[in-house]
Each structure stands twice: as structure tokens, then as C-alpha cells.
Amino acid sequence: MTSIFPGMNPYLEHPDLFPGLHHLLISEIARFLSPQLRPKYRVAVEVRTYETIDDSSLLVGIPDVIVKSRKNISETKNTKVAVAAPAPKSVTVTVPMPINIKEGYLEVKEVGTEKLITTIEILSPTNKRSCKGREAYQEKRQQVLGSRSNLVEIDLLRKGEPMPMFGDNIESDYRILVCRGNRRPQADLYAFNIQNIIPAFSLPLCAGDSEPVIDLKALLNQVYEIYDYDLVIDYSQEPVPALAKADAAWIDELLRDKRLR
After folding, report:
1. Could you tell me which of 201, 22, 207 has the C-alpha nearest to residue 122?
2. Confidence (pLDDT) at 249
3. Which has the higher per-residue pLDDT, 213 or 167?
4. How far apart are CA 156 and CA 163, in angstroms?
5. Strands, E, within 54-83: which ranges?
């Protein structure tokens, strides 16, 4: 079963689903590009590794105890008999645990020289939060932007802080940034919302070379169909993260029309 959404399926943004989608979509883009780029270029799947705090253990439990006020403490000094308070019992708390994160991305390299031509990144949830994941990605991003290579940055997550750029006053759910090394600091931004079709874009290569067009929506549909996402998504529920009121109404009508609600 194919996805019924004209653009990004917001149910795929769920924290339990997006990490797998991230990996599978990167692989699908690589599979699509490889035969079109050879023999001059090749696509390499690279992995960025860093350590961060496990989000599920960020909250440390606070014991439910009653502490005497200063007034009560001073009043006890006037008593003639000192009565020891009961020893507090232990409580179970959760401490933040460091975990290793591995994020895949693509690099288009020139065959023979191994020169980096284009980096393709799909942003992860940690890239859009104020944490080590964002720091690690921004460091890599600055390295690419400080070179002559190209950058394609795909943001399919509504939640979190978008990557910084200037001259962009557009608020959108999703973004695709195509930044050519020979045009910087200018870049092409494709901003779109849940109700929009995902725009196709050309993969930047060296000047004069034929550039394949990436139809991201078609690749997303292939991942959705091949890996049976329709069997794990419950469309009777609301997507996570939550939608704006107008988008929720639009999706409800769409799902009812397709008899998924």
C-alpha cells in the first residue's frame, strides 16, 4: 500500500519510526543515484558517531518529601525533649545515561581522486535540538560550507529548531536546502508544508555535468511500500508531534475519504 499523502507523511515523524526511515531513505537515495552518476562519480554511505544523553532518561526523579520551614525548625529549639525524625527511605530515581548515536549521510565523490563533490544530509531529531547531536552536525555543516563542495540538506521534521540561514523569512513545516559551492553564500531553499507536494530538485555536481533530479516524494513512497509502513501506522490516532488545527482537520478529512478513519 502506498502513502496517501501528497507530500510528507507526518506519521513517519514519530520518534519510533523516523530513525529507521532515516536509514532506509538514505539507502534508497544512494541506490537511485549510483547508476546515474557512474562512471565519473560514486555514492558513499558515511556514518557520523557521537555520544549524547539518552532522551528517555533526562528526567531525574525527585523524592516526595516534606521539609520543615525555617520557622518550624527554630520552634523546635525551645522544646526540652529532642525526638529524632524517622530515617528517610530510599526512592527510585533515573539518571541520564550516555548513549552512542550513529547517523548516516551520503557523499558523492569523484572516482579516482576521491574528491568530495556533494554531501547529502537528512536531518535527525538530535540535529534539531540543543544537544551534542546538533553541535556535531553543525561542525560538519560548517566544514562543508567552508569548502568548495556542495551541500544538500533535507529536513523532514516539523519539531525542533531549523538550521540557521539568512534571508529566510518563510515559516514552513519542511525544508530542502541546495547549496552549491560556486554560489555561496547564496543557496536554493525549497520550503513546503504538510499539504504540499514535496518539490523535486537537481543534485549539484561539477559545472557542466548532467545533474540527476531527485524526486524525494517518489523515493519516500518506495520506502513506505517496500518496508510495509502501512502495517505499523495507526491512522485512527493523531500523529506525533501534534499538528496545527487546520492541518489536523485537513488530514482527518483525507483519512476519512480513504476510509482509514
Report:
1. 22
2. 97
3. 213
4. 12
5. none
Rounded to 5°, angle at Cα 213 from 211 and 217: 160
Q: Which grid cell sits at 67?
A: 521539609
CA torsion 13-132-134-121 (nearest 10°) is -70
The three grid cell numbers given for residue 111, joined into one nine-digit string: 572516482
Calpha distance 220→26 (Å, rounded):
10
Distance separating alpha carbons of residues 99 and 53, to the nearest angstrom: 6
Backbone phi and psi for residue 174, each to the nearest 5 degrees, phi listed first:
-135, 160
- d(C-alpha 24, C-alpha 19), whole Å: 9
**pTM for the whole thing?**
0.82
Contact between residue 219 and residue 32 where contact means Cβ atoms under 8 Å apart: yes
DSSP conformation letters of 102-124: EEEEEEEEETTT--EEEEEEE--
Poorest-pLDDT segment among 54-63, 137-146, 201-210 = 54-63
pLDDT in tens, 175-194: 999 999 999 899 999 999 99
